[in-house]
């Protein structure tokens, strides 16, 4: 009897460490608090489907898909609501880790419709991006590509660079990210997350954006917690020169 109990406990522990999911869906809310003018809200829903089950193993739950090189398709819809205008935005994408190699490719397509109710005008813009990457060691991705947009009044396409590295640091795991966008529109961003345990992370980020000769710096504080392996909650606070944005997201994995 004791042997049976011990065997059951071992199997249960094994099942716990090999928990897997294949899809996720999330809902988000962002509150825009400008220095001048009225506030605004953004509502979103997103989803992701992995070609193969993602196993958590002994990695931080938030990095299990990346460290497991999980190919996926993803999509997102968001609705931005302000007093005199609103924006509908649609995005779809794919990430593909080439089997039996260290190569990676990704692509994305988006479209947003902005309606100015005060002037009764509408603006459409399509965005797109593609990149190729290489993973020289486990946990490190280096990628380069192109990103652009085509709108009713303007269009542009520029080169991009991106890096992501997840690695143990002392007794913890950390995630480091960097990305840059060059050309007529310039952008660069840095971010880091510290995993206090496999289910909880806290992080900071900074980004500098220049579009239409208007420069904006944004500082971000963020945190994410897996309440269970199936459920996560996260929050963020973004501080910039003209407005602050406070966000929250709830996600379910299955």
TrEMBL record:
Keywords: Signal. InterPro entries: Porin_7. The keyword Signal applies. Residues 1-20 form the signal peptide. It comes from the Bacteria. This is Putative porin. It comes from Acinetobacter shaoyimingii.
């Amino acid at each position: 009897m004791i042997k049976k109990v011990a065997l059951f406990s071992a199997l249960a522990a094994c099942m716990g460490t090999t928990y897997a999911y294949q899809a996720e869906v999330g809902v988000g809310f962002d509150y825009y608090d400008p220095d001048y003018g009225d506030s605004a809200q953004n509502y979103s829903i997103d989803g992701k489907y992995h070609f193969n089950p993602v196993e958590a193993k002994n990695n931080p739950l938030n990095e299990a898909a990346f460290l497991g090189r999980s190919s996926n398709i993803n999509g997102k819809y968001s609705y931005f609501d302000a007093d005199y205008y609103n924006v509908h935005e649609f995005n779809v994408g794919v990430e593909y880790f080439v089997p039996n190699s260290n190569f990676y490719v990704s692509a994305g397509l988006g479209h947003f419709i902005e309606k100015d109710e005060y002037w009764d005008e509408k603006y459409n813009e399509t965005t797109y991006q593609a990149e190729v990457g290489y993973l020289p060691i486990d946990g490190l991705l280096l990628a380069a590509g192109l990103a652009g947009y085509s709108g009713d009044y303007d269009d542009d396409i520029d080169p991009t660079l991106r890096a992501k590295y997840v690695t143990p640091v002392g007794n913890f795991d950390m995630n480091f990210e960097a990305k840059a966008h060059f050309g007529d529109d310039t952008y660069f961003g840095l971010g880091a997350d510290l995993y206090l345990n496999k289910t909880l992370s806290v992080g900071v980020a900074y980004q500098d954006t220049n579009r239409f000769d208007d420069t904006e710096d944004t500082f971000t504080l963020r945190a994410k917690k897996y309440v269970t392996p199936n459920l996560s909650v996260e929050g963020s606070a973004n501080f910039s020169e003209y407005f602050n944005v406070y966000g929250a997201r709830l996600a379910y994995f299955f």
